[in-house]
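Here is an idea for our session: we take a single protein and study its fold together. Which protein we use is up to you, so please pick one and set it down. Once you have written the record down, we can walk along the chain together:
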Amino acid sequence: MNSASHRQDTGPRVPLREHVAESVRRYLRDLDGCDTDDLYSIALRELEIPLFAEVLRHCDGNQSRAAAMLGIHRATLRKKLRDYAMG
């Protein structure tokens, strides 16, 4: 299923990076002057968990299809799912 062909709106598609940038700006603002030394790992985790969940849902739970859609090896997907306690 190609979600682009099933879109209801006809307006321009906002690039994913814009959504990510807004979320990062909000997170940094919410730090309210506090520092963090692991922002990369936090951001990666916060992106990967919903990314994997949604792609798996889109692929009806088929890990081979999901891995292909993500452009990663199925073993990599399975390891990350275990790391995140997602399967």
Summary: Confidence is low (pLDDT under 50) at residues 1-5. The first helix runs from residue 16 to 31. The helical segments are 16-31, 39-58, 63-70, 74-83.
